[in-house]
Design a protein that fits this description.
Length: 126
């Protein structure tokens, strides 16, 4: 039996059974807004500081790969995860699309990475 993500251990099972996406979004935002080496004892947990080490076009492939790895590794309820860059905006945010299967159903999420603050925001795309 797969282990439940850490943050979901504090919520009731009934709530996640009625709305399975809420706990997934909370868990992913917690993982992706944690900086590697801070806030968790496991090496490799959280995103590295890509904006400090690389700039411009070099950032995107590394960040895309890291986002996909983190989502696939730390959110076991999602299967067949793919992260794809969809563009950028004038506010210096990169827009990604996360696709996968949640409880056997296709799921599409918008992931916004703020390159200034390195904050990640997720939203459901329907």
């Amino acid at each position: 039996m797969p282990r439940r993500p850490f943050l979901d251990r504090f919520s009731s099972r009934g709530a996640s059974a009625r709305e399975p996406l809420g706990p997934v979004l909370r868990n992913l935002e917690a993982v992706l807004n944690t900086r590697e080496g801070y806030g968790f004892f496991q090496q490799g947990f959280g995103l590295g500081d890509y904006t400090g080490d690389r700039g411009g076009k070099e950032l995107v492939p590394f960040l895309t790969e890291e986002l996909q790895r983190q989502v696939a590794q730390y959110e076991p309820r999602l299967r067949d995860v793919e992260v794809t860059l969809r563009g950028q905006d004038a506010a210096l945010c990169l827009h990604f699309e996360v696709t996968g299967l949640l409880s056997g159903e296709a799921l599409r999420l918008g992931l916004i990475f703020d390159t200034v603050s390195s904050r990640v925001r997720l939203e459901r795309k329907d």
